[in-house]
Design goal:
heterodimer, A: 317 residues, mainly alpha, globular, B: 478 residues, alpha+beta, Rossmann fold, 3 domains
Amino acid sequence: MLSRHAEDLYWVGRYVERAEDTARMLDVTYHNLLESPGDGAETTWGELLEVLFVNALYTGPLESSAVSSYLVADRTNPGSIISAVERARDNARGLRDRISTELWEAINVFHLDLARADFHIDLDRRAYEVFRSIKSRCQLISGVAAQTMPRDDGYRFMLLGLLLERAEMTCRLLSVRYARLAGGNGQSGFHAWVSVLKSVSAYEAYLKAHDASLDPTDVLQFLLLDQEFPRSVLYCLQQVERLIERLAGPSHQASMERAVGRVRAHAEFTDIPTIVDGRLDPFLEELQREIYEVSDEVEAHFFRAGTDLQLHFQRWA
Amino acid sequence: MGSFDEVHGPDGVRAHYQALMNRLAEIGDAELADRLGLLDSFFRTLGITFAVTGHEGGLERTWPMDLVPRIIPPDEWSHIESGLVQRVTVLNRFLDDLYVGGQQAINDGVIPRWLVESADGYVREAHGIPAPRGSRCVVAGIDIVRDDEGTYRVLEDNLRVPSGISYVLENRVAMTRILPVGFASHVIRPVDHYGASLLRALRAIAPPSVDDPTVVVLTPGVANSAYFEHAFLARQMGIELVEGRDLLVDDRHVFMRTTKGLKRVDVIYRRVNDEFLDPVVFRQDSLLGVPGLHGAARAGTVTIANAIGNGAVDDKGVYPYIPALIEYYLGEEPILPNVTTYLPWEPDQLEVILGRLDQLVVKPVAEAGGYGIVIGSAADEATLAATADALHSNPRGYIAQEIVQLSTHPTFVDGHLEPRHVDLRPFVLSGDRIEVVPGGLTRVAMRKGSLIVNSSQGGGSKDTWVLGNGGGHAVTPR
């Protein structure tokens, strides 16, 4: 397929996942702080901005209403939900022939909802419902895509973007929150772990797999390496590896396949208990770097054909 | 001066319209009004719209289709069809003569060189670009009108990037859904093979060395007013719809960027105008084109359709010479005559024009879409004076024609049927043969008495039925 279409679909996947992750983390943070307000608020909001990579851009006060509005509805924030959905919609508009009408409608309606004039009022008054509706609209989009798109390369590129974004986000979340998690104990440590799990929709799944004692090693094991939980980093990377294999077909691209194999194996063969004391941080950083490498390889290989050519064409005189 | 009515003759409803008019009477106006509402929502849901130019922010309207189809009986159609094949054969022949032949028609004095070379769409850089099979007008849209005696005449040739075929196909689909009973008791020639026919024509003009050519549609992008049609055609043909940035030229070969690497492109059905095709040769500020594309076309490694430079021949100033060119190349009388035209750059004709300015229509040669036209009988003194000045100072910029009272056709307006003026744009394909799509786009001026049918100026359209028993719609060129 055309590189431009593939790239646009890949970014639809990334933007939608980014919007959903942002909404979920906002939701969890917001409600944790409602339940246990206190001096931790500023730190918590600061951390959230850091997870979302916009801490350097944000100049407002570190309190819930300002940060929420910045992360959800601020068009000057390139990482805001409204920016992500707008770009997903722009991409989808040029892909009308490549995506199902149902998928286009789901994205377009989401965009129209965020763009309506009184959206700000809702965000102020009913933040919880706004976050919920954003999450469910994102889930609707991935659900509609799964139900209506043929399993062709276009679908694979969209999924690839979504999974890379998800793996990256989970790593960042653990990395930023880890300092506090490692230091905390008793009641506050417990709440922090619960909020991390909830931030990736993993709390219920975790309780089923383990138990409510929330052993930090088990939580890390679960979020990083669980074989069955669809948001664990390893699960995403395994899917990414399979997708890349299918997309590359017989034209093996050694550097891309090496990059994804390396990060998948790195995650898969890491023994969490041995690194949980003191070596988790460098491990997560390394993992993130390797995930970026995969993204770079994907973009270079699938979307940039011909850019390395020294073009020469004759001018007619 | 009366107009020819397509439906009502001197002895009542013409034979080929009787079944349809009876049906419409049975259905009744109230029911028709209901169906019209259905039709609008049909087009809106599908997103079939076009942009109206001259409005702030690019106003989008749904495609206005009238409920009453236009019917062309078989004998009239075969007359039109043979006239179109004759005309397009000659248009291709003359373009090839001009750009890669010996310019024999010019050298033999059939048409003045200065006139052709001063045409807005004449492209010096197109000399030497080969066109396989001489098919330079792969898609031609020939505008036909009917005068007060019912004679079909050619009003205009559109040989660059004529649009409208998607509406022909969508109109037919809409009609079968909204007014299925209308179709009963008629044998109507289908139009839905257009995608297959166009692809066949495009494959036929691939560079001769290519066995299994890759064909693409090149669009300026989503912002273009005809983007819907570009996407529609790519879908109908099952080929890629590309933008300039999807293509690159290396060593005089064209490639598209795909996820599996670079893929050779052999034929480009472009919907981008000449001046935007290649920033190396034409407009340097063009972001829509592909650097080096012109060089690849000259080298013959890729075929661009329609060919570069076709605008030299659909210029309104060249139009009056087409009958002579038909005579010159084929030794035949034109089957479809032109509208009587006067040339302001000929001093004696300029005098005739100025003397009868209030009875003629004056058209700028370089404008399309019905813009800049002055209809003498409807113009005030000031406009006529300004037109006379313009004719004096820039005679090559205009032509003058007898006003053709376009034929009228019953049209559903304000809840009942009223006559409105119509024209017809059939589409003619040139590949390994010349093929005319049965019917074409009938455009209708929705305003009472108006002769301007262009959709950009509030015109509508009609589904156009060619009656017959199918078969034999391809004609071998001579």
